[in-house]
Structures are given as C-alpha cells and as structure tokens.
Amino acid sequence: MAVAPPTATERASRVKLMIFDVDGVLTDGGLLFTAEGDTMKGFNSMDGHGMKLLREAGIDTAIITGRKSGIVAARVKDLNVSHVYQGVQDKPAAFADLLQKTGLNAGDCGYMGDDWVDLAVMLRVGFAAAPANSHPEVIARAHWVSEARGGYGAAREVCDALLRAQHKYEALLAVACSGEQRGLVG
C-alpha cells in the first residue's frame, strides 16, 4: 500500500533551521540604485519580527542570497540571524556548508525562495516555501506558498506557519498579550 507524502504541516513541524533568500522574499525584489551606485532595499518589519519569534521558539534562522549588500548585513545583524551567506553564486554549496556547520540534515531545514536560483536548495530541504509572487516553477515545487507577496509579509506567514505546526504559536502569542517585555522588535 502506498504511503501518502507528508503534508506541509508535517514537514513544517520538523524544521529546526529556516533559511531565507533575500531579494523577492524578504524584500519585494525591487532594487533601487543611488547616483553613486549604492543599492537600497526595503524590509518588512513583520517579517523581521517573525524571524525573531522563530529564534525565540528554538528554530534557528539563516540567509543564503546571491547579492552582497551592506544593507542586508545590517538587517540580519539587527535580527540576530545566526548564519549569513551573501554573494553566493552556488546556493547548493552554501547549503552543504551550512549543514556541515550546524550538524543538521537537509530534512531538518526549511527554505523560502522565489526564483530558479533557489530551486536546487528547495528540492533538498524537508520544507520548501515560496512567496505568492514567486516564479511559477518555484510555486509548483514548493510544499507551502504564502498568500502575501515577497517583502510584504510572506516571511512572517511562513514563520507563523512553522510556529503553529510546532505548537509554539499560542504560547508566544500569550506572552505578547500579557505585556511581558522580551526585547523583540521587527
């Protein structure tokens, strides 16, 4: 008898490390350039707060992105992201390095990406997620797709989905409702 593949919730319940692409996931994918050639990006504070909630719940976070940016370095430092890979031309190699450094296996990881460059990692992880406005080939291969677009709450949606799947959402919400200070801001 054939066994049904795991649901997205089952997959999310096993995630110990959530990895995010940046452009098109944590940002809307737009790149603004100054006259001096500097790049500017906008980040959603709710996405950042979701990443902090993951960490508080014991789910580690990482970034693997093709571009190298001081803006991204500042943002991930602010969010206290544990593992940061910028300027990556070979995302599967960066993922393999991340697995070696953390001692995790691919099934323990989730990845949220939006375009073809993310597919090789998405196809290796236990939980593959995509923003609503991802390339159709990415959406077709994702286990879970947000309702929000990249840069507009997609990362927060996946963070909330992980917390719910791991039965940690309600406890974190209760702390927030109680007014206890935890020092978390998005």
TrEMBL record:
Its cofactor is Mg(2+). Mg(2+) binds at residues 21, 114. Its EC number is 3.1.3.45. One of its GO terms (biological process) is lipopolysaccharide biosynthetic process. Substrate binds at residue 23. CDD domains: HAD_KDO-like (cd01630). InterPro entries: CMP-NeuNAc_synthase, HAD-like_sf, HAD_sf, KdsC_fam. It catalyses: 3-deoxy-alpha-D-manno-2-octulosonate-8-phosphate + H2O = 3-deoxy-alpha-D-manno-oct-2-ulosonate + phosphate. It comes from the Bacteria. GO terms for molecular function: 3-deoxy-manno-octulosonate-8-phosphatase activity; metal ion binding; N-acylneuraminate cytidylyltransferase activity. Keywords: Hydrolase, Lipopolysaccharide biosynthesis, Magnesium, Metal-binding. It is an enzyme of class 3 (hydrolase). Homotetramer. Belongs to the KdsC family. This is 3-deoxy-D-manno-octulosonate 8-phosphate phosphatase KdsC. The lineage of its organism: Bacteria, Pseudomonadati, Pseudomonadota, Betaproteobacteria, Burkholderiales.
